[in-house]
Design a protein that fits this description.
about 120 residues; alpha/beta; 3-stranded parallel sheet; about 25% strand; globular
Amino acid sequence: MLSDETVTPALEITSQRSTPVIGPSSEKTQPADEDRRLSISVVIPLYNEEESIPLLHEKLAAALESYGAPYEIIIVDDGSSDNSYNLLAAQAAQDHHMKVIRLRRNFGQTPAFSA
């Protein structure tokens, strides 16, 4: 497994999917009904993108909400050395649609998609 998550107190590793992800601690045991019938999954690998994360989340969440279908946003932090992971973790704690996978080092875009 490529991921090596560090969990902040507000977050907890869950195993609802094949790869452990980080999300709000309210998702401990069972996936929410919405997660069981997801229509849209967006996977985004990123590396050192702390400046663009707030706008990315704002625009992407707004676009996905406009569809009116259940969705998830999976962000793969590909070993960022800036503050990207901390920003992502804070947003994931506030947005139940967002999940974060943190890789321990930069593996590249293709392996990040596989995580």
